[in-house]
Amino acid sequence: MARRGALPVDPIAEAKRQWLMHGWTDAAPGMSVVTSIIRAQQILLARIDRALKPFGLSFARYEMLRLLAFTREGRMPMASAIARLQVHPTSVTNTVDRLVRDGFVTREPHPDDGRATLLTLTDAGRDLAERATAALNDEVFTRPGLSGEDTDELVSIIARLRKDAGDFEDPRPMPDPL
């Protein structure tokens, strides 16, 4: 879809006005939040897609590579990757299939659990993860379009929403050393 420039009115504010005019006053703020977050996601994903296009990566493929690159040995069980990425197992399987096909990841039997599969980052996958991360840092993450203060506040607000939805729990305090 071609971008036509800025609209003369904020369509989300107009939608909220319409919600209020139709008597949906209790739902209007929530509708505004939901549609604002979804539109922000579209904007950010478009920026991410532009940054990753030269590498032939989707964000899902990039996330898998980066997750594996963060591990000490470049490997982790498939079940751990599914849990950390918080997406449906079928989506992770499809992502891994493409990364294996392209030589960026391998599947190996788990040495201690015959039912489990280890995902292992190849040297080519590690190199691609590093180059794609540099591009994302430069083109997207360093300048997300908000001030540092706004960024911190927004992340905090969204973290509360995610926590209340059961997305994560606060870490348990570490016990005192003996």
UniProtKB/TrEMBL annotation:
Domain named HTH marR-type: residues: 30-163
Keyword Protein transport: no
This protein's UniProt keywords: DNA-binding, Transcription, Transcription regulation
A Pfam family it matches: MarR_2
Protein name: MarR family transcriptional regulator
High-level lineage: Bacteria, Bacillati, Actinomycetota, Actinomycetes, Micrococcales
